[in-house]
Sequence to fold (453 residues):
Amino acid sequence: MPLRATLLPLLLPAVVVATLVALLDGPKEVFAAALVALAGSLMSLGMSRGTLQRQLDLLARHTRERAEGGPPAPPGVPERLDEVAGLEGAIDSLHAQLSARNVALTQEARTLTAVLDGMTEGVWVTDAEGTVVRHNDALRPLLASTSSALTGQRPLALIRNEALHDAVMRACREAASSHLELTLDGHFPRTLSIRVTPLAKDLPGSAAVFHDVTELRRLEKVRKDFVANVSHELRTPITAIRGYAETLQGGALNDPVMAPKMVEIIHRQSERLSELVEDLLELSRLESREVSLKLARVTLADAAARAADTVRPKAEGKGQLISLHVPPDLLAEGDPRAVEQVLLNLLDNAVKYTPAGGQVDVYGACEQGRCVVRVKDTGVGIEARHQSRIFERFYRVDKGRSRDMGGTGLGLAIVKHLLQAMDGEVKVESEPNEGSTFTIFLPLAASSSAATG
Ligand code: ADP
Fold:
């Protein structure tokens, strides 16, 4: 048989094996040697073309079956040459290596996906051209994107921001990392802190991590506003006290008419200052949960009566009537001192913001398994647009009027926090020039007979 005709059929499996070896980066010498040995043996055996063809068919079939997930070659098949069996064994070990590597790769890919999808930060990965090729679950809600697929998109198509686009391109082309913060407008504006980094030296492309810092920035603003507000609130009485004290020092002390008036103002302002500091401390204790409220059964009629007694002199001074309608058996679960403080703040406001001759009523009831107390006045009322904000620290509808009335702007914030700490809440209903009703809700004490009757 001519040598060419014998070697030609060897070419096919040789190419298959060589390709596999190349793919797997396996031990090339083993296969080269096996192939040479096989060819040598076949030729030295002086095999007929038909026999050679059968051996090669066997080898080709086995290779195909293994590639399709078939079992390893059984030992001791009589018609199989030892050399072919050796080659089949090498293919089996290649197959085993390939399978193990596949399992490891699949495992790694699944772990990576689980980690990415478990993150609260959004992540996208781009190719060398800056096109998104992969992203995690958290990214879509962060971008509030309406587009159906994020992959295959350019950064500019997902977020209209040149700085982000530039950062991605710099990471892809110059391997430069950058950090930027941007605010997305829309229904729910959000602030994103974004870190863009190149992938790796031998892996072109970039990765970006999106962190939603909206709440963080809001809290920072609240803190800054609070500090500014406190400084402003403290400065007002301090400026008055210093001004009048200096005027007295400058000779007014000897003025028998002005001196007592100025001393009176200094006294009033220092009281205001101390109220402000007290309220601030109370709020800060509540917010840092330093005060541990002691829950007990609170007879709401008694708490309302004590609070009313405190503000009655002021109400009577304005010709106002305070009437209480709280059933004596209405028992809430709360801290007695805190409940009284809540009612006192609400009654104090009702008297403060109700003109002379007005009426303040306190109603108590058990509704849907909760204690409800309503403090209703016939005062100036609150426009709807202010109603949700009056529980914020220092928020006042009318700054001038509140200060004239001696308010610190913290009373309702304290009410809200105290109630929250007792598992309760406060609501307001109001009509300008008609009056306001502040309603508080508290858990019903277990043994309250109002619960059943
Ligand atoms: P202030 O010390 O200014 O009274 P609060 O926190 O107690 O502070 O109340 C916040 C603002 O809510 C007040 O400045 C006032 O504008 C409004 N407000 C509170 N209670 C009443 C009420 N009963 N009637 C009308 N407005 C009220």
Observations:
- The first strand starts at residue 122 and ends at 126.
- Residues 349-350, 353, 377, 379-382, 390, 396-398, 402, 407-413, 436 surround adenosine-5'-diphosphate (CB under 6 Å).
- The first helix runs from residue 3 to 24.
